[in-house]
Design goal:
The complex is a heterotrimer of chains A (483), B (477) and C (97). Chain A has helices at 8-16, 22-40, 48-63, 106-113, 156-163, 180-186, 220-230, 274-289, 302-320, 339-350, 353-366, 371-395, 418-423, 429-433, 463-480, and strands spanning 43-46, 75-79, 117-122, 169-174, 189-192, 212-217, 260-264, 293-297, 398-402, 438-445, 451-458. With 483 residues, chain A is of the alpha/beta class. An 11-stranded mixed sheet of chain A has the order 1-3-2-4-6-5-10-11-9-7-8, with helices on both faces. In chain A, helix 2 packs antiparallel against helix 3, helix 9 crosses helix 11 and helix 9 (302-320) crosses helix 12. The model of chain A has no long low-confidence stretch (mean pLDDT 97). Chain B is of the alpha+beta class and 477 residues long. In chain B, the strands form 4 sheets. In chain B, strands 3-7-8-11-1-12-13-14-15 form a 9-stranded mixed sheet. The structure holds magnesium ion and zinc ion.
C-alpha cells in the first residue's frame, strides 16, 4: 500500500514495524504535494526541510521506543491560522503575509509530543471567514474530488490536503462549521470538539467564543486518535476545560444498541438537496438497523442560529482583528500621512472584502446605540438555542442530520451573494453557538460523484458517543464496500 | 462676575498595583528595564495569545474595595474597550464596564472648612495599563515600549462629590493612605503609579442639575491638580459668562504652560464598543474568598492611632503625622521594636526626616535608611558616643545612602573623645586663648560660658560631649 | 431593504474599524450591511424578555494565575516581525502634537 493512501494508524504501525520510516513517509507525502498542489492549492506554505528534519528526529525516538503512539512519524498539515514557531502563518491574508510566529500553538505542541511531522500550512478562507476557501489571498483551493468545485471552508486546504494525499491527516478550526463542512465536501472525516476541549492558545482568533481546533482525517479511528492527542487542559487558555475522559480511542467500538438518535425535522426542510436528504436518511437507517432508536423531532429556533451567529462572530472578529494595525507585525502600507491614515491604509489594503464586510458589521453591532438591539439580543438568542439543545439532549443521545444543504458548489458560484453563502451553514452553526461537539462522516455521494457528509451532534463532552456512532456507521460502510 | 458659582468635581483615579507580574501574563512589572525586555506574546498582542487573570490583582482590588466601604460584586466580568492607539497592542484594553469588582463605596475626608464629608465611590474596576510612547525628535516619529503594557491597574471612580481642589487633595491623600496601608500600591503621583483624571463642571450655586463636564488628564502632582482645577474652573466660568457653552471633551493639562488644551481628533469617535471579553471567564467571589481577604486586612490608620496613644508616650501631633504615611509608621514601629525609645524615634522622624524629605523632595515610600540604622544612631547618642550635632551629620549621610552609623562614625573618627586628659588640655588652651571671655564669665556673664564651650567643641572638631565640656570648664574656672 | 445605511454611518463605521473605503466600496458596503441587518432583524421576532444574555457556554469560573514571573527577555523575538524598529522599540508615525 502506498504511503499517501494510508491512514495514520496504518502508517505509524508500518513505521513501528520497520516497513518504512518517518523520513520515507514524509518524502512520499512531500512529493505528492509537489506533484498535486499546483492543481489543488491546498498549501500556503510547505516546509520541506523542516518536515524532513522533524521526521529524522521522530524516527530516532520511535527506534528508541520513546514514541509508540498512532501519530508517531505521521505527516500532518496545519491550518494557516494556527501558530507555528519559525514557520510563516498568514491566516491566508495579505495582512499577515510575512508573519512568522515566535511561539507554537498548544494544540500543535500536543501533536509534536505525539510524534507528528508538520508538513506546512494549509490554505483557508481569509481569517476563517468563508465557506469555500475562495476568500484566501493566496488563491482558492480546489476540491480534489472535482477541481471545478470548491473544497468548502474555511478549513478547505486542510480537508483537500487529506483528500488529495497531500498529508495523512490535518487539523483545522471550526467557528461555524469550518471543519465539518469542508470534510463533507471533500469526503473525509472532520470533527469539532466540545468548546474548551482543545486549547485555543496559538489559534489566531476569529470568533473567540465559537472557535475550536479539531481533526480532519481519513477515517473515524484516526479522528479519535488525533483528538486524543489534541485535547488537553491548558492553563494558558482561560476557557480550556479540564476533563478526564479524553481517551477517545477507547470509544472505537461498534455499538449503538439502545442509543437514542433524534433527527430534527428542521434539518430536512426547504433548501435541502434531495440527493443529500436521501443519502443522510439512508445512513440513519443503517444506525437504526444496528440497534439505535432513531426518530424525528422538532429542534426549533434553527432559522435564528445564522443571524445570531453572524452578529456574535462579526462582533468578536471586529475586536479580535483590531491588533492587525501595521505596527507590530504583518503588512504596513507604503505611504501614509500620519498615524490614523497608516492604520486605515494598512488595514484596507491588507484585509480582503469578506473580512472587511464582517469587521464593519461587527463594529456596527457593538457601536453606541446598537449594542442592545443587536449584540445583546444575539447573546439572548444564543441562550435560547442552547436551551433548545439541552431539551433535545434530555431525550436523545445524539442528533443526526446533514452537514450542508448541498454538495460542493462550483468555484465562483458562492461569493456573489454573501447571505446565500451564509445560509449554507444552517446545519453546522448552532453547534458552535451551543459549544457542542459535532462530527462529519462521509456517507455517500451525489449523482455528480461529489461527496456527502453525515453530521452527528452530541451534548457537551459527549464526543465518545459521537465516535461510537460514527465508527459503527463507518464499519458498516467498509463491510458493504463503498460505491 | 456677578453670579456665584460652584465647582463640581469627580475623580477617576488609576492605581498601579504592586504585583510581581502583569495582570494577564507572567511578565515582570519591575520598573526601569530596557525597552520591550519585559514582554511576551500576551502583553504585546501577538496573534493567538490569550490572557489569564493574575489572582493577586483580584485580591488587591477586593481589599481596596473593602477598605473603601464598597460592595464587592460576587459575579464580575471583564470587558473589552476598543480603541486604536499604538500604546495599546491589541487595540482594545481589557477592563470592566458592566460588572466591575467593587461598587457603591465611599471614604470620609476633611473639608476645607474643617468639617467631615463622605466622597462616594461609584465603582472600582480592574484593567490593564498601556505601553509607553516616546517621541523621537530625530526621525519625527514615535517609539513604542510595551514593558508597561499589561501592568495591573485599578480604576477608582468617585461620585461627583468634591467641590474644591482642597477636597480633591484630601480625597487623594485618603485613598493613597488606605492603599499604602494595604500594600496594594506605593501610589506615587510623580512616577505615575497613581494617576488622577479630573472630571469638572461648574454650576450656579443652588442649581439642581450639573453643568457640562470636561475631563482633564496628565496631572502628575498635587500642585498640578490644584492648578488645573483652578484653571479649568475659571475657563468654564468665563465661557458661561460670555454666553458660550462648555464642550464635553477630554483636555490635556500642560503643567509647564499652566493651561490645558482639548485632545480632539476627528479620528477619535469615543465609542468604545465595550463587550464581554470572550477570552476571560467570569470571576465568582465566594464568601470564603471574601472572608480570607477580610482576615488579611491590615491595621488601618484609625486603629493604629488608637494603639499608638495606648502604647507609646508620644504627642498626638506626632501620632497623626507618623500614621499619615504608612512607610513612616512602618519605620517607627520597626525602630521601636529594635529597642529604641519611642519618643526618640518619633523625634528623628518629626524633625530631621521630615525636614530632609521636604528639602530633597523625597516621598515617604522612597526613604532609603533602614530602621536598624536609625535605632543604631539613637543608641550611639544615648550612650553619648556621639553628640547631637554629629548625629545630625551622620543622619544626613544615612538619609542619602543608608550607611551603617556605627561603621561610619568609626571610619570617620567622629566618636566623642572621652579621654579626660585630652579634654582638659584643650580646655586649658581655650581658657588661655580667650582671656576676655574668662573675665566676662567671672563677672557673672553666663553667656560667656557658651562661647567657651563652642570654642572647645571647635578645637575638638565636634567630637566632644558638650555637657561634659561645660562641666569641666566651670570646674577649671 | 428596511435598513438604509447612510453615508455618515459608513463613514463612522470606517473610523471605528479603521478602514478606508473607495466610493465604490462604500456603496457596496452600504448595501451589504443593510441586507445583513435586515437579516439579523429576524432575531427581533423572538421574545427574549427575562432571558439572560449568554456569553460563555459553560460555567467555567475563576481561572487564575499565581503572581509568579515566568517570562524572560523576549525582545529580539518580539521585534522580529516589526515592520519598522529602532532602539529596541516599534516605530510608529508621531503621536504627539
Ligand atoms: Mg479606565
Ligand atoms: Zn507579558
Amino acid at each position: 500500500m502506498n504511503v499517501i493512501e494510508m491512514t495514520a494508524a496504518q502508517l505509524s504501525a508500518a513505521i513501528r514495524a520497520g516497513k518504512t520510516t518517518a523520513v520515507e513517509a514524509a518524502e512520499a507525502v512531500l512529493s505528492q504535494i509537489e506533484k498535486e498542489d499546483k492543481k489543488y492549492n491546498c498549501y500556503v506554505t510547505v516546509d520541506r526541510d523542516g518536515a524532513l528534519a522533524q521526521a529524522a528526529a521522530v524516527q530516532e525516538k520511535i527506534e528508541a521506543g520513546e514514541l509508540t503512539g498512532p501519530l508517531a512519524g505521521v505527516p500532518v498539515a496545519v491550518k494557516d491560522n494556527i501558530c507555528t514557531e519559525g514557520l510563516r502563518t498568514t491566516c491566508s491574508s495579505k495582512i499577515l503575509h510575512n508573519f512568522v510566529p515566535t511561539y507554537t500553538a498548544e494544540a500543535v505542541k500536543n501533536l509534536q509530543k505525539a510524534g507528528a511531522v508538520i508538513l506546512g500550512k494549509t490554505n483557508m478562507d481569509e481569517f476563517a471567514m468563508g465557506s469555500t476557501t475562495e476568500t484566501s489571498a493566496y488563491g482558492p483551493t480546489k476540491n480534489p474530488r472535482n477541481p471545478e468545485h470548491v473544497p468548502g471552508g474555511s478549513s478547505g486546504g486542510s480537508a483537500a490536503a487529506v483528500a488529495a494525499g497531500e498529508c495523512i491527516y490535518a487539523i483545522g478550526s471550526d467557528t461555524g462549521g469550518s471543519i465539518r463542512q469542508p470534510a463533507s465536501y471533500c469526503g473525509v472525516v472532520g470533527m469539532k470538539p466540545t468548546y474548551g476541549t482543545v486549547s485555543r492558545y496559538g489559534l489566531i482568533a476569529y470568533g473567540s467564543s465559537l472557535d475550536q481546533i479539531g481533526p480532519l482525517t481519513r477515517n473515524v479511528t484516526d479522528c479519535a486518535a488525533v483528538l486524543e492527542a489534541l485535547a488537553s487542559h491548558d492553563t494558558k487558555d482561560s476557557t480550556s476545560v479540564s476533563r478526564d475522559d479524553t481517551d477517545f480511542t477507547a470509544a472505537l467500538t461498534e455499538d449503538v444498541k439502545g442509543m437514542r438518535i433524534g433527527i430534527p425535522n428542521d434539518y430536512l426542510g426547504e433548501g435541502l438537496d434531495d440527493e443529500v436528504r436521501t443519502v443522510v436518511l439512508q445512513a440513519a437507517e443503517v444506525l437504526a438497523d444496528r440497534g439505535a432508536v432513531v426518530e424525528r423531532f422538532d429542534l426549533s429556533l434553527v432559522e435564528y442560529a445564522i443571524p445570531a451567529y453572524y452578529t456574535i462572530a462579526a462582533a468578536e472578529a471586529s475586536s479580535n482583528l483590531e491588533r492587525f494595525d501595521g505596527i507590530k507585525y504583518g503588512y504596513r502600507t507604503e505611504e501614509y500621512a500620519g498615524l490614523h491614515n497608516m492604520y486605515k491604509k494598512s488595514r484596507s489594503e491588507g484585509f480582503g472584502e469578506e473580512v472587511k464586510r464582517r469587521i464593519m458589521l461587527g463594529s456596527f453591532v457593538l457601536s453606541s446605540g446598537y449594542y442592545d438591539a443587536y449584540y445583546l439580543k444575539a447573546l439572548k438568542v444564543k441562550a435560547l438555542i442552547k436551551k433548545a439543545f439541552d431539551e433535545a439532549f434530555a431525550k436523545y443521545d445524539l442528533i443526526l442530520g446533514p452537514v450542508a444543504p448541498t454538495t460542493a458548489p462550483k468555484l465562483g458560484e458562492s461569493l456573489a451573494d454573501p447571505i446565500q453563502m451564509y445560509l449554507g451553514d444552517i446545519y453546522t452553526i448552532a453547534v458552535n453557538l451551543a459549544g457542542l461537539p459535532g462530527i462529519s462522516v462521509p456517507c455517500g455521494q451525489d449523482s455528480n460523484g461529489l461527496p456527502i457528509g453525515l453530521q452527528l451532534i452530541g451534548d457537551c463532552f459527549q464526543e465518545k458517543k459521537l465516535i461510537r456512532a460514527a465508527y459503527t456507521y463507518e464499519q458498516w460502510r467498509l463491510c458493504k464496500g463503498t460505491e | 462676575m456677578s453670579k456665584q458659582y460652584e465647582t463640581v468635581i469627580g475623580l477617576e483615579v488609576h492605581v498601579e498595583l504592586a504585583t510581581k507580574t502583569k495582570i494577564f501574563c507572567g511578565c515582570s512589572t519591575a520598573f526601569g528595564a530596557a525597552p520591550n525586555t519585559q514582554t511576551c506574546p500576551v502583553c504585546t498582542g501577538m496573534p493567538g495569545s490569550l490572557p489569564v487573570l493574575n489572582k493577586q490583582v483580584l485580591e488587591y482590588a477586593i481589599a481596596v474595595g473593602l477598605a473603601t466601604n464598597c460592595d464587592i460584586t460576587r459575579y464580575a466580568k471583564f470587558d473589552r474597550k476598543n480603541y486604536f492607539y499604538p500604546d495599546n497592542p491589541q487595540n482594545y484594553q481589557i477592563s470592566q464596564l458592566y460588572l466591575p469588582i467593587c461598587r457603591n463605596g465611599g471614604v470620609e475626608i476633611e473639608t476645607d472648612q474643617g468639617g467631615k464629608k463622605i466622597v462616594g465611590i461609584h465603582e472600582i474596576h480592574m484593567e490593564e495599563d498601556a505601553g509607553k510612547l516616546i517621541h523621537d525628535e530625530w526621525e519625527d516619529c514615535s517609539l513604542v515600549d510595551y514593558n508597561r503594557s499589561g501592568v495591573p491597574l485599578i480604576e477608582i471612580v468617585s461620585e461627583p462629590d468634591m467641590r474644591s481642589a482642597g477636597e480633591v487633595i484630601a480625597y487623594l491623600e485618603k485613598l493613597r493612605q488606605v492603599i499604602q496601608y494595604l500594600g496594594a500600591s506605593d501610589c506615587k503621583l510623580q512616577e505615575g503609579s497613581m494617576r488622577a483624571d479630573v472630571n469638572l463642571s461648574v454650576r450656579e450655586v443652588g442649581a439642581e442639575t450639573f453643568g457640562t463636564r470636561t475631563e482633564m488628564k496628565n496631572l502628575n502632582s498635587f500642585k498640578a491638580i490644584t492648578r488645573a482645577i483652578e484653571g479649568e474652573t475659571e475657563r468654564q466660568i468665563d465661557l458661561i459668562e460670555a454666553g458660550e457653552s462648555v464642550v464635553q471633551e477630554t483636555r490635556r493639562w500642560d503643567d509647564a504652560k499652566g493651561e490645558s488644551y482639548a485632545m480632539r481628533s476627528k479620528e477619535d469617535a469615543q465609542d468604545y464598543r465595550y463587550f464581554p471579553d470572550p477570552d476571560l471567564t467570569p470571576v465568582s467571589v465566594s464568601e470564603d474568598m471574601l472572608e480570607e481577604i477580610r482576615a488579611r486586612q491590615p491595621e488601618f490608620r484609625t486603629e493604629k492611632m488608637a494603639r499608638y496613644r495606648e502604647e507609646f508616650d508620644i504627642p498626638d501631633y506626632d501620632i497623626e503625622i507618623i500614621t499619615g504615611e504608612k512607610p513612616l509608621a512602618d519605620l517607627f514601629e520597626a525602630a521601636v521594636a529594635l529597642g529604641a525609645q519611642p519618643k526618640k524615634v518619633s523625634n528623628w522622624i518629626m524633625g530631621e526626616t521630615l525636614r530632609l524629605m521636604k528639602e530633597r523632595e523625597v516621598d515617604a515610600s522612597d526613604l532609603r535608611f533602614s530602621p536598624e540604622n536609625l535605632a543604631k544612631l539613637i543608641s550611639l547618642t544615648d550612650t553619648k558616643q556621639i553628640n547631637s550635632s554629629v548625629a545630625k551629620e551622620v543622619f544626613e549621610v544615612m538619609f542619602a545612602e543608608n550607611v551603617d552609623p556605627e561603621q561610619y562614625v568609626e571610619e570617620k573618627g567622629l566618636k566623642t573623645v572621652n579621654d579626660e586628659g585630652a579634654l582638659k588640655k584643650t580646655i586649658e588652651e581655650v581658657i588661655a586663648a580667650n582671656p576676655q571671655s574668662v573675665e566676662d564669665y567671672r563677672n557673672g556673664k553666663e553667656k560667656a560660658i557658651g562661647f567657651l564651650v563652642g570654642q572647645t567643641m571647635k578645637a575638638m572638631k565636634g567630637k566632644a560631649d558638650p555637657g561634659a565640656v561645660n562641666q569641666m570648664l566651670r570646674e577649671l574656672l | 431593504m428596511a435598513n438604509n445605511i447612510s453615508d455618515e454611518t459608513i463613514e463612522y463605521v470606517g473610523i471605528l474599524a479603521k478602514l478606508e473605503l473607495s466610493d465604490e466600496e462604500k456603496e457596496q458596503a452600504k448595501s451589504d450591511m443593510g441586507r445583513m441587518l435586515d437579516y439579523i432583524d429576524k432575531l427581533g421576532e423572538l421574545d427574549t424578555t427575562d432571558v439572560e444574555p449568554m456569553s460563555h457556554v459553560f460555567s467555567v469560573e475563576n481561572v487564575f494565575r499565581e503572581d509568579v514571573v515566568t517570562n524572560g527577555d523576549e525582545r529580539e523575538r518580539l521585534l522580529s516581525n516589526a515592520p519598522q524598529e529602532k532602539d529596541g522599540m516599534f516605530v510608529v508615525p508621531r503621536t504627539f502634537e
